[in-house]
Amino acid sequence: MKILRCCLFALMTMMLAGLAPVLAQESGGQAPAQEQAPPADVEQASQALIKVLNDPESRAALIDLLQKSTGDSQPAEGDRQVPGNEAAIPVQGISQPLQQENFALRIGEYTRVLVDDAGYLLEQAMRSLNGLVLVARGDIPVKWDRVEDIAIQVGIVLLAAYLGFFASQLIAKALYPRMSLYARYGGGLTRSFILVLTSVVDAVTVGVGWAVGNAAALASFGGINAGVTLQESLALNAFFILGMANVSLRFIFAPGRPELRLLPFTDESSLYWYGRLRLFMYWMVFGLFLAVPIANVAVSFVLGNALRFLVVLLGMIYLLVLVHQNRHRVNEGARDYAEHLQSALAKRALVLVGQLWHLAAYGYIAAVFIIWVTRPFDATTIILRATGLSILTIMAGMAISLVVTKAIKGGIRLPDDLNRTLPALQSRLNAFVPRLLKFIRFAVFLVTVLLLLEIWGLLTVAEWLVSEAGVQLLSSYGSAFLVLLVAFMIWLAVMSWVDLRLQSRSGYIVTARERTLFQLFRNASTVVIVVMALLLSLSEVGVDIGPLIAGAGVVGLAISFGAQTLVKDIITGAFIQVENAINEGDVVTVAGITGTVEGITVRSVRMRDIDGTTHIIPFSSVDMVSNFMRGFSYHVALIGVAYDTNITHAKDAMLEAFRRLKETDFGPKIIGDFEMHGVTNFGASSIDIRGRIKTVPGDQWGVGRAYNEFVKQVFDERNIEIPFPQVTYHAATPPFVDDGNKPKQRKKVDVSSTQLEDDAPADDGEN
Question: For the Moderate conductance mechanosensitive channel YbiO-like transmembrane helix domain, which residue ranges apply (predicted)?
Fold first, then answer.
């Protein structure tokens, strides 16, 4: 920008210098000739301007700077007036055509820059290939004796390096079977650790080979005093770079070691990709890091530049063909693997990656080729740095994502002791932690993509992060995330404390009232924590929560007028809890429904009746609560006997039934003796005798059923009749019928109770 500003100043100076004679003529020749710019300054400014215009990037920046300066110098729209005596008329209709014209100019400028860049690339390619033409015509001589010496030196050090590498690989392979065994029976974290460990061992073998090669270089061609020559150093560097590249390929594909493979490659596909990419690595590394430098030293830099271009061009063509041949194969593999995923988002993402991966590969290959052509001298450093950092970034992102995915699928496993103490803690963690891990996995993916864009220079993420906007954004959203995390920890602690208080321990029994109150406290605390966490999070990200709170108050007031029943539910429920009228587990009669209380909220009670039907009753409809579970209960026994029964014998039988009942398992549930009330009613067919049994609350129904069984048993033993309603029919004789003509009355005989003799005549009813 400093150079551009200088050029802009020089351009303005030249324009003023050109306008000086005109201004002098208009002013009547009063301006002296000495005010013109010196020729030397104009010459220097012209050269600087030509230099800027020759560079496409500087030229585009200069155009933008001129447009900005022109826009700043233009008067405001309201200040534009037509000169003369005419009224000021704002020029409003010109803005839209000017915007269209500026947009068209920008599109044209960008198109021209693209065409210029394409021409520059073609020019650089032809210039690179010109070296081969010069060598072929003999304009550049080849020093064959020097080529022979360099080939011998390089061959010796590479042979020694590979011997050391293969020897150390034989030693390392003795450790691989045991590591593979651990990985086969271990989890995802164990597999990842062993894969990293084997990669470190592979890297160590490469380092051993590199050290052996350096030792061979020092021992040959002059000994230690002569040191390592440039050619030997280039060969060893190529060996080391190629070895580390192969280590990276083995980390990704794990050929021949399926138990260590993190990616869903089959044995066939892993060997295929490892072999093809390894061949490409050999071609590129030995070509660029060995053949090109040797050509520069032995022949000329012109030949080295031509070889560099050919190596890169053929390598890029090889990769393009490889990607084109396997685009459908990779797409089908991605689809097959996506079918086994549980997350719908992960399925769609993987299918999309399978459909578009070849386009990303084409873009990467084109970017590498452009860098090699435009910046041949530092292209190796740029590409190796960017590619290496990209591979490390992708590997790290994949490793973290796989570990997080394993934790998501497996869930959180707490120790058995903690599960016995807090049985609901693990379920709560598994309800929230997997979602948090999914968010972390998405954040890892996003960070990986941003780092890749930063590595390749497409975005300046690091600069943006240290800028004011980046720091503010990270601090605000980071603070909001911390608020949510702390709120979750507080909620988890409160829920665990409630669970702990609701557990019965030795010497401590949880009452129904405590269980109900703690359940209500749990619900209320959850609502308070969620609301406070959301408000504080919104405040941290810059949202003004004052209007939200005021709006919530207004909305709450409006709702209170429109939802009076809801307010009544809450208030009535609060008084019911204060008076301890209903607790969870009680048997109550509420709003005409009798059942067991299963749950209580701030506005309703949930009950289940004897038929299994669930009733949710709002507190606003409760005018009376009948609780069967307070202090003690009674079973009222109302026993009916026949009118000819001795009442004393009947009472004694009822007491005998009570004595037998107390000898059973129901005895501990009975409080006190049997309360005999005596005869309470003369019914239509029975005399009712009432007694009462005092029981533990909630056991009156079971005790009553058992007592009735014993009453029936004792009454049967003592021949005490339990009457039932009977009907007697009487046939009336008409008054006009004579006594002699009265129809004969048949006597009904119970055949089952009367035994007839075999020779006895049948009873005709006359006797």
Answer: 386-464
Q: For residues 688 and 681, is the Cβ–Cβ distance under 8 A? A: yes
Residue-wise pLDDT tens digits, 159-212: 888 898 888 888 887 777 777 777 676 666 777 788 888 888 888 989 998 888
**Residue 631 structure tokens:** 């202090």
Q: What is 159-198 written as a DSSP string?
A: HHHHHHHHHHHHHHHTTHHHHHHHHHSS-HHHHHHHHHHH
User: Per the structure block, which two tokens stand in for 244?
Assistant: 């580390």
The residue behind tokens 């780092």 is 451
Q: What is the pLDDT of residues 714-740, one digit of tens each?
A: 999 998 888 877 666 766 666 555 555
Determine the residue type at 474: L
Secondary structure tally for the chain: helices H, strands E:
23, 8
**The model scores a pTM over 0.70:** no
Question: How far does CA 627 lie from the centroid of its chain?
Answer: 48
Which of helix, strand or coil describes residue 307? helix
Residue type, 202: D
Least Cα distance to 89 among 77, 74, 71, 99 occurs for 77
Given strand 675-682, what is the order of strands in its sheet? Answer: 633-641, 687-695, 675-682
Give 507's DSSP letter.
Answer: T
Do residues 290 and 380 make contact, with C-beta atoms less than 8 angstroms apart?
A: no
pLDDT tens digits for range 606-659 = 899 988 899 998 887 888 888 888 888 899 999 999 888 899 999 999 999 999
- pLDDT tens for residues 389-424? 888 888 788 778 777 877 777 666 777 777 677 767
Q: What φ, ψ does residue 557 adopt, rounded to 5°? A: -65, -40
How many whole angstroms separate alpha carbon 590 and alpha carbon 500? 31
Distance CA 203, CA 278 (A): 16
Rg of the chain (C-alpha set):
50
Please, which residues have CB within 8 angstroms of residue 405's CB and are 6 or more apart in sequence?
Answer: 441
Q: What's the CA gap between 371 and 369, in Å, rounded?
A: 5
What are the residues facing 67 on neighbouring strands? none
d(CA 434, CA 442): 12
* DSSP strands (E only) in 342-488: none
How far from each other are the two terminal CA atoms of the chain, in whole angstroms? Answer: 144
Q: How far apart are CA 250 and CA 220, in angstroms?
A: 33
Q: Encoding tokens for residue 216?
A: 């061979």
Amino acid identity of 627? N
DSSP 666: T
Which pair of structure tokens corresponds to residue 734? 């008409």
Is residue 694 classed as helix, strand or coil in its secondary structure?
Answer: strand
H helix runs in 27-143, sequence order: 39-54, 56-73, 95-137
Encoded tokens for 52: 């800027």
DSSP H or E run through 2: helix 2-26
Contact criterion met (CB below 8 Å) for 278 and 249: yes
Q: Report d(CA 271, CA 257) in Å as an integer.
A: 10
d(CA 191, CA 22): 83
Contact by Cβ (8 Å): 640, 722:
yes
Report the C-alpha gap between 393 and 438 in whole angstroms.
Answer: 19
Report in angstroms the alpha-carbon separations of 209 from 162, 168, 270, 329, 593: 6, 8, 26, 37, 87
At 578, list the tokens.
């204060």
Helices 700-717 and 647-662 sit at what angle, rounded to 10 degrees? Answer: 130
For 517-539, give the DSSP string: HHHHHHHHHHHHHHHHHHHHHHH
CA-CA distance, 427 to 623, in Å (whole number)?
A: 39
